[in-house]
Write a structure and sequence with these properties.
The N and C termini lie far apart (38 Å). The protein has a 5-stranded antiparallel β-sheet. It has a single domain (17-135), classed as Alpha-Beta Plaits (2-Layer Sandwich). The chain has helices spanning 21-37, 67-77, 92-96, and strands at residues 11-17, 41-42, 57-62, 83-88, 101-103. It has 135 residues and is an alpha+beta fold. The protein is built from 3 helices and 5 strands, in the order βαββαβαβ.
Length: 135
């Protein structure tokens, strides 16, 4: 068994899932709450399943320094939505499956489209939010 160093984590993603129109509305409120509180990069809405994800969702990319504030906040403020949180270590399949953690309902991940081998490092996270509220 090989122990990985924490410095292999380049950044993190949180995938916030919704299914119904009502859940999408909740996800939209959560998206705004995140933007008001954290320096993150909020991705586009995906109104249909995409890639390995089995439900519509949007992604929030965040740096290592945001993790200790953002993830605990998300744990208690996800408003019942399913959330996948995973590191980016350069191994997408492993990061989305065995290295991931779920908040709320655990959904299936379609791992086949994700590379098993090491990929290029993810670009540095450049936040597109302007927090004005303390978490």
């Amino acid at each position: 068994m090989t122990v990985q160093s924490l410095d292999t984590i380049q950044s993190y993603h949180a995938h916030i899932y919704f299914e119904s129109a009502e859940q999408r509305d909740v996800a939209a409120v959560l998206r705004e709450e995140i933007a008001q509180r954290f320096s993150v990069l909020i991705g586009s809405w995906h109104e249909a399943p995409i890639g390995p994800h089995v439900r519509p969702m949007y992604q929030v990319a965040f740096s290592i320094v945001e993790f200790p504030k953002f993830v605990p906040w998300l744990m208690i403020n996800r408003h019942g939505l399913a959330v996948l949180v995973h590191p980016n270590t350069g191994y997408p399949r492993r990061d989305h499956t065995s290295n991931a953690t779920w908040l709320g309902e655990k959904l299936d991940i379609i791992a086949d489209p994700l590379p098993e081998h090491e990929t290029e490092p993810e670009a540095a996270i450049v936040p597109d939010t302007f927090p004005v509220i303390e978490p």
